Structures are given as C-alpha cells and as structure tokens.
Amino acid sequence: MRHSATAEAHVAKTDDSIRRYRTIFISDLHLGTRGCQAELVLDFLRHNDADTIFLIGDIIDGWRLRAGWYWPQAHNDVVQKLLRKVRHGARMIFVPGNHDEFARQFVGLTFGGIEIVRNAVHVAADGKRYLVMHGDEFDVVVRHSKWLALFGDWAYDTALFVNTHFNAIRRLFGFDYWSFSAWAKLKVKNAVNFIGSFERELAAEAKRRGADGVVCGHIHHAAIREINGVTYVNTGDFVESCSLIVERDDGALEIMIWSTPYAQRQRERAAMARADRPAEAEAEAEAA
Q: How remote is the C-alpha of 140 from its chain's centroid?
C-alpha cells in the first residue's frame, strides 16, 4: 500500500471545489470545547465527501460540557453538516471515545442514520482489513486513574488556551497556524515514550484480531507506519494538528492536513501562479 504525507491530488472530483474519497476517518473534534477548530471542520466537510465516514471518538467532549456548557453555533453547524451527508447517501459510523463515552450506552443503535458501534472492521479497496477503534482502551491513565486523566485534560485545555492566543498573534503577522501544544508534547520524553507504547499496543491488538492494520485516534498524533507487520494509522485531531485520514479509490491511505481554509489556499495558489508567470516569460525570452 502506498502512503503519502498529505492528500493533494483530486480523487473522483465532483466539481471544482469538492473532492470525493472512498472513506474518510476523522476523530477528536472535541465539539463543546473552546479548542475545537469548528470552522475548519466545517470548511473541510464542505469541500470533501466520501462513500463512508468513520467518526472515531471524542467527536463531542462530554467531559468539558459537564464542567461548563459551551456550544456555539459553529459546533451545531458541524453536527448538522454531518447529518446532511448521511441524508445525501454517505454511510456514517460512530465509534465513541472516552470524552463521548456517554454514547457507548447506545452501541448497536442508529440515530439520524449514524451507526453507533464499539469498534469496527473496515475492508479497504485493496482488500486490507483495518480494525477501527478510538484507542482509549490502551491508555493506562484513562483506564485506571480517571482523576488523573481529568487533571491531564485540564492541563491540556490550558495549553490549548495558550495555543489559541499564540496563533491569533501569528495570524496578525501573516504566519500560518502552528501548534504550540503539539510541539511541546513531542519535546517531552515521557509523552514521546507514551506515544510509542500506545502505537505498539494498538498494532498488537490488530494482529491479535487477525487484521492487517488499525485505525485509531485518542492521542492527537497523526501517523501511518508499519509496526511488526501491521499498518498503524492514527487520524490525529481537529484541535491541534487539524488532521484526518482519507482512503483513495485504490485503497491507499493518506494523512490530510486541513489547517488552512480552502478559499485561503486557493488565493495563495493563485498568487504563486501569478508570481511564477514573469519568471516563465523571462525564461522563454532568453531561450528565444
């Protein structure tokens, strides 16, 4: 299977601004928190479609909502956009995570056309079988020390608060989005060790269940890599990295980063194309 860092090529283009994929895997939106990049989620959903969409946990942050209600219109718009995709024919499968664990009581049911399951097996176009699960079952802190997980959640929200204001200043000076919290996480040795251990455990679970790979979320660290003969895939998140996974029609899985709105990227590409034209004209004149 071929893997690439980002998904840039058109796949089954339906019009000039919409790309269609065989499958979209997305997780960790954390609707109901101030750190959620709801406007970017909406922008992604407007410009991308798929036959099947997996929502792999922590779509709604029940932990935060219990602590204090925060639900702006943009978060409601995301939910409505997802439901609209179901009405337009997409199959949507919701695998609850630890932050939306309240939905696990509804496993086996369907709401608004969205199937709720504990985990799933996805068969890609190339025949590879992927175990799909959120992954919190393999987080020792979440499993055995809920109070510590809640404290860590508070600390994480604080980092995201810093991240939001830091990027507001960057935008004033014309700089792109950069995740301070993601950078800090990868600089802490224990966090790096945790990520490595988490990845190995998920890959081992997929192998134990006879799958060729695993697609998960939870740790907010997008990745596609081979671990002991198993393809480990993590969707990342839409809080820090604004990342997800798409499956193309040939079964290839790709990490997609959607940290910049579609319209802005189009403007930047147009500006780059205009800047290249004088250089091309000059080169042609010299050749003549």
A: 23
Q: What is the tens place of the pLDDT at every residue in 83-141?
A: 999 999 999 999 999 999 999 999 999 999 999 999 999 999 999 999 999 999 887 54
Q: Is 255 helix (H, G, I), strand (E, B) or coil?
A: strand
Residue 93 and residue 102 in contact, taking contact as beta carbons nearer than 8 Å: no
Give the integer Cα–Cα distance in Å for 162 and 184. 12
Q: Name the pTM for this structure.
A: 0.78
**Around Cβ 288, how many Cβ atoms within 10 Å?**
5
Q: Does an H or E element contain 50, and which?
A: strand 48-55
Is 147 a residue whose pLDDT tops 60?
no
Q: CA-CA distance, 230 to 228, in Å (whole number)?
A: 6
Rg of the Cα trace of the chain?
20
